[in-house]
Design a protein that fits this description.
By secondary structure, the chain is mainly alpha-helical. Helices cover 61% and strands 8% of the residues. The protein has a domain at 3-182.
Length: 298
């Protein structure tokens, strides 16, 4: 399936979600950080820009899970990690605090009610999708999973916090963008390459043929990224880039760590996702006090 088709499927799915938000809530105001309140006031109405932002969230969540894929258990695993992180954030608004009942409690209860059955189904799937997988997931689960997070984030009014939990997916999208938008040739499949001799995964590569050589500027940027250990490139006798590792976080991890067994790669990526998410939640509930004078939780 081409990228534009993958883009439009979540886009059409987002329309009923945004319509529901408009009918039930219609809130397009944001709280302005303290240093900017003297210029914009306490609340700023973003109007249609707010709906544009929510459209981006609804399109990004399914696609971001779909492009961080290709290893047994990674699609379901990252979805479970994200779900548990969101549930942890939800619990902060339900556990006893200085308020008898937190104003956002209903929104986070809605998130919990939606995520608990999702976690149950995903755990069962994860058992059979983990290495060596007996069941494989495709676009259908990735879109389903991503839209679950988009729904709870938008209708639960914590889409900005949700994006903090998606930092690895955001990085993977930005890192993949040169291939997604054809600045660098993109093969049909970019999943890591299996070495049958060693039984380990290695970074897969994109090759640049002489009939369609890489643009010089792009080649120089790839060489710079190679020196920064952000990509692995091979040059020909003319000093031009002949091939580079595919631009996904899975291949980048293998560039950093060297060849790994498939389950070890998946565990390390999921461990990274967990650590980044926990740090993001800590930052979100700490920095909020500095920017807004209070935190939604405390």
């Amino acid at each position: 399936m081409r990228w534009r088709h993958k883009f439009f499927i979540p886009a059409f799915a987002a329309l009923p979600l945004l319509a529901l938000y408009f009918v039930d809530f219609g809130i397009t105001h944001i709280v302005v950080p303290l240093p900017l309140q003297k210029y914009f006031g306490v609340l700023l109405d973003l109007g249609w820009i707010y709906y544009l932002y929510m459209s981006v969230v609804a399109i990004f969540c399914p696609n971001s899970i779909n492009i961080l894929a290709g290893v047994n258990g990674i699609e379901v695993g990252q979805s479970l990690v994200l779900a548990f992180l969101v549930l942890l954030n939800d619990s902060l608004y339900i556990l006893p605090a200085k308020y008898d009942r937190h104003p956002a409690e209903d929104s986070h209860l809605f998130s919990i009610y939606l995520l608990l059955p999702f976690v149950g189904v995903s755990l069962a799937l994860f058992k059979h999708n983990w290495y060596p997988a007996k069941v494989f997931v495709g676009d259908t689960y990735c879109y389903f999973s991503g839209m679950v997070f988009a729904v709870v984030g938008i209708l639960g009014h914590f889409s900005k916090t949700l994006m903090l939990l998606f930092i690895p997916q955001v990085f993977n999208f930005i890192y993949s963008a040169p291939q997604i938008f054809k600045l660098v040739p993109c093969p049909r499949h970019r999943l890591p390459k299996f070495n049958a001799r060693t039984g380990l995964l290695e970074p897969s590569v994109a090759t640049f043929e002489e009939v369609k050589p890489l643009r010089p500027l792009v080649g120089e940027v790839l060489k710079l990224l190679h020196h920064l250990k952000l990509v692995r490139v091979e040059v020909n006798e003319n000093g031009r880039v002949a091939e580079c590792s595919n631009l996904t976080i899975l291949n980048l991890w293998l560039v950093w760590r060297g060849p790994l067994r498939e389950d070890r790669l998946a565990m390390e990526i999921l461990g990274m996702q967990t650590i980044v998410g926990l740090v993001a939640l800590w930052i979100r509930h700490s920095i909020a006090k500095l920017l807004f004078g209070m935190d939604n939780r405390f």
